[in-house]
Amino acid sequence: MDTDLFFSKINSYHVISKEAELAWSGHLHQKVYLKNSHFIQIGQVPRKIGFVVKGLLAQHYFTENGDTVIKYFFPEQRFAASVGAMLTQSESQFDILALEKATIIEYEAAAFQKLVSEFPDIALFYIRYMERHWIIEKEPLEITLRADTAAKRYEDFLKKYPDLPKRLKKHHIASYLGITPTQLSRIFLANK
């Protein structure tokens, strides 16, 4: 298993020591998920975090009427987890599903928490990661879902994920944007 890409991503948030890298390496293992297989299932108490080396995952849930709502995409070099459920040790409200065959570097959340306690540089990585993805990225997304038009949300989606539209089906994009595939088709037509 090649961990260079993994640690390069870690170091893009905060550079960690070789000692911390070696300790973390002992907890990493690689797994391949086939298309449509689950990384995490609704109702499961999640215990692992995954780094997407290759492939694409999506975090989604189902509405009362059975519609699928995609909350987040995890393309290459993203970390996938049901963080809220993992931190509270409760059942996940979300599925994380492989939309493509995916190669994932995984590690146990409990082992990671020990590393955070033992290595201040890993703790700083964790803080920087959470700041970027749970505050800086998440807050504007919550506002746009309520305030922006579907066309504006699609424009923002293209900025955030410029390479994903060619890898996704239209219903995946529509689900992420909170609109119907028909509404998405209208946006496509208006942008031609």
Per-chain topology:
Blueprint: H1 4-13, H2 18-25, E1 29-33, E2 38-40, E3 48-54, E4 57-62, E5 68-74, E6 79-80, H3 83-88, E7 95-98, E8 102-108, H4 109-118, H5 120-136, H6 138-147, H7 150-160, H8 170-177, H9 181-190
Antiparallel strand pairs: 1-8, 2-7, 3-6, 3-8, 4-5, 4-7
Helix pairs in contact: 4-5, 8-9
Protein name: Crp/Fnr family transcriptional regulator
Organism: Flavobacterium pallidum
Care to give the gist of this entry?
InterPro entries: cNMP-bd_dom (IPR000595), cNMP-bd_dom_sf (IPR018490), RmlC-like_jellyroll (IPR014710). By secondary structure, the chain is an alpha+beta fold.
Sequence of secondary-structure elements: HHEEEEEEHEEHHHHHH
What is the fold-level CATH name, i.e. the topology of the largest domain? Jelly Rolls
- Under the CATH scheme, the architecture of the largest domain is Sandwich
Number of domains: 2
CATH class of the largest domain: Mainly Beta
Counting H and I runs of at least 4 residues, what is the number of helices? 9
- Order of the strands making up the biggest sheet: 1-8-3-6
Shape summary: globular
Secondary-structure-based class equals alpha+beta
Residue-averaged pLDDT? 92
Give the beta-strand count.
Answer: 8
Q: Note poorly predicted spans.
A: none
N-to-C CA distance? 44 Å
The biggest sheet, with number of strands, parallel, antiparallel or mixed sense and barrel status, is: 4 strands, antiparallel
Rg: 18 Å
Question: What percent strand?
Answer: 15-25%
Oligomeric grouping of the chains: single chain
Q: CATH homologous superfamily name of the largest domain?
A: Jelly Rolls
Query: How much helix, percentage-wise, in residues?
Result: 40-55%
